[in-house]
Automatic annotation (TrEMBL):
Residues 30-82 form the DUF7455 domain. It comes from the Bacteria. Pfam families: DUF7455 (PF24254). This is DUF7455 domain-containing protein.
Length: 86
């Protein structure tokens, strides 16, 4: 049981979009096989630039984020998965 849940309930509370404070990523589409185009580490960020998908690890995605967002038509960020793994 999650430490912040109310222990008076026997089951975990139902989660819905209206009860979460942060927008939820419902689908993780990047896999361990997706690699950063800069260094080869596991990719957690995908950006589409000029019709091509570029993949970045969290480090390089953050390093180039400002410049990439200025030209990217899409930005897909799964770096929250890194915090979930702890």
């Amino acid at each position: 049981m999650h430490p912040h849940w109310n222990h008076t309930h026997e089951e975990a509370p139902e989660m819905s979009m209206s009860t979460t404070a942060e927008p939820a990523v419902l689908e993780y589409r990047l896999t361990a096989g997706d690699r950063c185009d800069s260094c080869g580490a596991q990719a957690y960020i995908a950006a589409e630039v000029n019709g091509s998908e570029l993949l970045f690890c969290a480090h390089h995605g953050r390093k180039y984020e400002e410049k990439l967002r200025a030209v990217a038509t899409t930005w897909h960020d799964e770096t929250a998965r890194l915090a979930d793994a702890r």
